[in-house]
Amino acid sequence: MARIVKLDKCAPYEIAEGTELPVYICACGLSKNKPFCDGSHKKTRDEGPTDTYQYDDNGRSLVKN
Q: Per the structure, how many domains does the chain have?
């Protein structure tokens, strides 16, 4: 299934209170283990803050705004 992702945050949200170890919640929308982070955000490191990308099983493509 294709996803359109607009970069809003470059890292997951950390939930530290009330847990023995920190829990990370996906902020990029690409995790295969939602709502938890699985490291998929690393694919977005080179994206610009105003760009929008479409992700699918073959990778990503820039969506023209």
A: 1
